[in-house]
Amino acid sequence: MRDYLEAVTQADTVEDLWKLHVTEMAKYGFDRLLYGFTQFRSGTSLGDTKDMIILTNHRPEYMEGFIGEGMYFHAPMVRWALENDGACSWRWMENQRNRDGLSETERRILEFNRSMGVTAGYSVSFRSVSARAKGAIALTASAGLSQDEVDDIWQRHGRDLIIMNNVAHLKIIGLPYSTAQRRLTARQKEALEWVGEGKKTQDIAQIMGLTPATVEKHLRLARRVLDTDTTTQAVLKATFQNQIFVIET
User: Fold this and answer.
1) Whole-number Å distance between alpha carbons of 106 and 75
2) pLDDT of residue 217 exceeding 90
């Protein structure tokens, strides 16, 4: 446990951290993980998936259906995670199904999961102080493990697993993360940082040794990359993603 926690807290990139976490969870019988975090949750949406942190080692065909086709938003365990904090056995889904507590859409997603071998596991929903932010991880058990066996694993190691997943989550949201399509260039980052410091375009141009027109170009491209309408929104989103005001490693 100490070796794992030390390695996680010292990880410099999301990629390195995720590799560590996947390896560690597999030791407990969870060989497929799906982590998600959003800063843009509302009453009817979890925000654009392009703005979420989504980490997984599931097969592409599973992710194409579950995330690509939007099934995640109607998945029973996602509903549980949005309404609760802590850990929950996937037995909850079967209990809900047996008492007609699942919608027809949720039942279809349950069948999709079964067809993809996603049948037994646990979900951990992380506590947040922001109403707009939410993170959770789904731990899928290795093929051949029943929910009874998974519940037994959790009975013996659940406290350690909750600690490890919470630490990993807290580290992930503190590291820079962006998809290739939403990654800012060094100049775009610098220009946004100076805007965040309250500098005007003319001041930024002088600081960066550029013309005001070039600064405006970098800011315009940053807004396009981050899919925002204003530079203020771009600064906020880049800050959420830890793309600016970070120490480069």
Assistant:
1) 6
2) yes
pTM to 2 decimal places: 0.84
User: Is the Cβ–Cβ distance between 161 and 151 less than 8 Å?
Assistant: no
* Burial (CB count within 10 angstroms: exposed 0-12, middle 13-18, buried 19+), residue 196: middle
Please give the domain boundaries of the chain with CATH numbers for all domains.
Answer: 2-172 (3.30.450.80), 180-240 (1.10.10.10)
Give the span between the Cα atoms of 19 and 21, in whole angstroms. 6
For residue 141, the surrounding DSSP H or E stretch is strand 134-141
pLDDT tens sequence across 73-114: 999 999 999 999 999 999 999 999 999 999 999 999 999 999
Closest to 126 in 3D by CA, of 95, 81, 88: 81
User: Hey, CA dihedral for 63, 69, 73, 77, is it positive or negative?
Assistant: negative
| Averaged pLDDT score across all residues of the chain | 93
> In this predicted model, which residue has the larger pLDDT, 219 or 44?
219
